[in-house]
From TrEMBL:
Annotated gene: pyrF
The organism of origin for this protein: Companilactobacillus nuruki
Residues of the Orotidine 5'-phosphate decarboxylase domain: 4-224
Known partners and oligomeric status: Homodimer.
Pathway membership: Pyrimidine metabolism; UMP biosynthesis via de novo pathway; UMP from orotate: step 2/2
UniProt-recorded name of the protein: Orotidine 5'-phosphate decarboxylase
Length: 230
């Protein structure tokens, strides 16, 4: 079965976003990521309208707060029928299990963000003063997420084999920081091509600008989808 390319809808306005989506044939059942940029502008009505059009939704809110606040927020989101939701794994064990508890009764999968793919070893050591190798920090947070009920993690594709080894094959590894050979890397630090992500065992890839800022978004999506599902 084909694995999803999750398209990150990071647009400044909803008109631009709908124009982008209209390039795709109706039968193409896209998996869309709504992040902070669009959610802060358009909120739940936007999520609902995309669900009503039949899209799968990854709500990338990266919640990071005290356990009680995260649980109550997740109880609300549990009613929204979205497929995936993120919290930061660095919020800790109690926060992760509170998020899972909040989502109880829904089919929303809880994903914990490990180390953002925009952070490399230098930023980890010098800015955040984390005295671990990046891959050890990522696997530590992944294990914390696994032990506390998350369904998977967000990491770069580069860490997927190590994460699967210390958790389980079923533990989802959803990987942004995807760049086809021809694309600009931009602010991402830990990157992989779609084919490398497949070889490393990612369960889904998240791709934004290489698709949304391409001249022909549909063509860019199709090429990435083919490389990923070869
Ligand atoms: O570690 C993370 C967590 C989330 N993201 C999100 O994925 C997309 C990537 O977009 P590109 O344009 O392909 O770089 C974006 O919405 C991020 O918020 C991430 O990149 N890294």
């Amino acid at each position: 079965m084909n694995k999803p390319v999750i398209v990150a809808l990071d647009f400044a306005d909803d008109f631009e976003c709908i124009n982008f989506l209209n390039q795709f044939p109706k039968e193409e059942k896209l998996f869309l990521k709504i992040g902070l940029e669009m959610f802060c502008q358009f909120g739940y009505p936007f999520v609902r309208s995309l669900r009503e059009r039949g899209y799968n939704i990854f709500l990338d809110l990266k919640l990071h707060d005290i356990p009680n606040t995260v649980r109550r927020t997740c109880e609300m989101i549990a009613k929204w029928d979205v497929q995936m939701l993120t919290v930061h794994a660095s919020g800790g064990a109690e926060m992760i299990s509170a998020a899972k508890e909040g989502l109880k009764g829904s089919s929303t999968e809880l994903l914990a963000v490990t180390q953002l793919t925009s952070l490399g070893q230098d930023e980890l050591a010098n800015e955040l003063q984390v005295p671990l190798k990046s891959q050890d920090y990522v696997t530590h947070l992944a294990k914390l997420a696994f032990d506390n009920g998350a369904d998977g993690v967000i990491s770069s594709a580069l860490e997927v084999p190590m994460i699967k080894e210390i958790t389980s094959d079923e533990f989802l590894c959803v990987t942004p920081g995807i760049r086809p050979k021809s694309a600009q890397v931009g602010d991402q630090k830990r990157v992989a091509t779609p084919s490398r992500a497949r070889e490393l065992g990612s369960d889904a890839i998240v791709v934004g600008r290489p698709i949304t800022q391409a001249k022909d978004g549909h063509e860019a999506y199709t090429n990435i989808f083919k490389e990923w599902n070869k």
